[in-house]
């Protein structure tokens, strides 16, 4: 009975590794800050542009984000934060060797009524 369970466990591990190798992904991480003050912007939305299904995350209290499971190749992300101009960062090259690390500065959007 034990050899059967061991074989099933090994099969499960190998199939998981093979499935990961078929669809390699990478991480985009970084920090979102105010352009003038340099203060972090907590709660900013970071969205993988034109992804289906949509992939995104928000920044933590220190303005840091980590966008997981991004397909390799050229990708674009959009950053949105209330009261600031949205920013599109096009053509980020994701390779299997190294994750992409960004520091993005957002500009306040002044609205007059």
Count helical runs: 1
The rounded distance between the terminal residues' Cα atoms is 75 Å
Please indicate the percent range of residues in DSSP E strands (runs of 2 or more): 35-45%
Multimeric organization: single chain
Q: By helix and strand content, what is the structural category?
A: alpha+beta
Question: What proportion of the residues is helical, as a percent range?
Answer: 10-25%
The succession of helices and strands, N to C, reads: HEEEEEEE
- Evaluate the radius of gyration: 19 Å
- Give the strand line-up of the largest sheet: 3-2-5-6
Shape designation: elongated
Strand count: 7
What's the rounded overall pLDDT mean?
87
Largest sheet geometry: 4 strands, antiparallel
pLDDT < 50 runs, ≥5 residues? none
Description of the structure:
By secondary structure, the chain is an alpha+beta fold. The protein is 19% helix and 42% strand. The protein has one helix at 2-22, and strands at residues 25-34, 45-48, 56-58, 64-71, 73-80, 87-94, 100-106. The strands form 2 sheets. It has a 4-stranded antiparallel sheet, with no helix packed on it. The longest helix has 21 residues, at 2-22. The model has no long low-confidence stretch (mean pLDDT 87).
């Amino acid at each position: 009975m034990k050899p059967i369970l061991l074989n099933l466990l090994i099969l499960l591990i190998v199939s998981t590794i093979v499935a990961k190798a078929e669809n390699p992904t990478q991480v985009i991480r970084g920090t979102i800050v105010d352009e003038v003050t340099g203060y972090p912007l907590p709660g900013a939305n970071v969205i993988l542009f034109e992804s289906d299904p949509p992939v995104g995350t928000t920044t933590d209290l220190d303005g840091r984000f980590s966008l997981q499971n991004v397909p390799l190749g050229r990708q674009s992300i959009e950053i949105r934060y209330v009261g600031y101009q949205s920013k599109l960062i096009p053509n980020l090259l994701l390779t299997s060797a190294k994750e992409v690390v960004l520091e993005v500065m957002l500009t306040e959007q002044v609205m007059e009524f």
